[in-house]
Design a protein that fits this description.
By secondary structure, the chain is of the alpha/beta class. The chain has one domain: Rossmann fold (3-Layer(aba) Sandwich), CATH 3.40.50.720. The protein has 12 helices and 8 strands. It has an 8-stranded mixed sheet with strand order 3-2-1-4-5-6-7-8, with helices on both faces. Helix 1 runs parallel beside helix 11. The two termini are 30 Å apart.
């Protein structure tokens, strides 16, 4: 990759890879303000993309982002599609609306998500909420958007993940935590983040021949996005023992421990735009660099089992 690192900003990434933005079509989920997604959208708007489409739950949080994009460059086409990732009917309707608005998608960034939901919660389909919002909804959306991704030359799908994948492998024998009886908010988060990485591998394996590749990007941590606003420092202290128990390693937050709003979008944008990554994908990107993940997040058996389970959960098979 280019000379980018953990302190690089989104604007620096855009400046480095501006040719990967110009004239292209981007779809970002969960880009309400303030969020990593909104920071990515605003950074992209500085390099003349043809179209930025934001799919998110709350219109009032997205409208300021679209207005800011227009202030930066009023020639950029912008579209908002409202949907709920945890409602599969809503995801299917959103996919249709996105395909109508963008018959070609160059980059899809699956940015929406939740973290460490304290109380066991299920979605409309009965799936544990963190798995639903962070993986299953995106699995369905991405596969439904394949016609538009395949229409591009070298489309890329970026799943936002986290070093939190170290907290837990995917619990294939009990992904729904015994209907709540075995629920742990961090293990649920770790399972979902592992799924994001495995899904990138599954996508690349099935769709690489159609020019579609997947990447998983760990953006780092920033408190301004409110993703962890419900958590205390004591809550974060529980991560280390869980990583040791489930992954067998000592956990340490990577540096920089905290990133600015300008920095938090850099790594996923590098994952989306860097042409030098082609030979490395699927890959896990951290601090704008490829980092090898533990076996539970890349092993072939886990990749295949997750794909099959995800098809079961959305009620549709996707064969390519």
């Amino acid at each position: 990759m280019a000379a980018l690192n953990g302190t690089s900003t989104a604007d620096e990434v855009i400046e480095t890879f501006s040719s990967s933005v110009n004239g292209r079509v981007f779809v970002i989920t969960g880009a309400g303000q303030p969020s990593i997604g909104s920071q990515m959208a605003l950074a992209l708007a500085k390099a003349s993309p043809a179209h930025i489409l934001i799919a998110s739950r709350t219109a009032s949080k997205v409208e300021p982002v679209l207005a800011a994009i227009k202030e930066l460059d009023d020639t950029i086409k912008t579209t908002f599609v409202q949907f709920d990732l945890t409602d599969h009917e809503s995801v299917r309707a959103a996919a249709k609306a996105i395909l109508d608005a963008a018959p070609r998608i160059d980059v899809l960034i699956n940015s929406a998500g939740v973290m460490a939901v304290k109380e066991y919660t299920t979605d409309k389909q009965g799936i544990e909420l963190q798995l639903s919002a962070n993986h299953v909804g995106h699995f369905l959306l991405t596969n439904l958007l394949v016609p538009a991704l395949a229409a591009a030359e070298g489309a890329r799908v970026v799943n936002l993940t986290s070093s939190g994948y170290l907290i837990s492998p995917f619990r294939f024998d009990d992904y729904n935590f015994s209907e709540g009886a075995a629920y742990n908010s961090w293990e649920s988060y770790g399972q979902a983040k592992t799924a994001n990485i495995l899904f990138a591998h599954g996508l690349s394996k099935r769709l690489g021949h159609r020019g579609i590749t997947g990447a998983a990007a760990h953006p780092g941590y920033n408190g301004d996005t409110k993703l962890g606003a419900h958590l205390t420092w004591d809550d974060y202290a529980a991560i280390g023992p869980l990583v040791k128990k489930n992954s067998g390693i000592d956990f340490a937050f990577e540096e920089p421990r905290f990133k600015t709003l300008g920095q938090i979008a850099a790594t996923p944008l590098a994952a989306a735009l860097d042409p030098g990554l082609e030979g490395a994908l699927p890959a896990y990107i951290q601090n704008c660099e490829v980092v090898e993940v533990l076996g539970h997040a890349r092993e072939e058996e886990a990749v295949e089992k997750l794909w099959a389970l995800s098809e079961k959960l959305v009620g549709q098979k996707f064969a390519y």
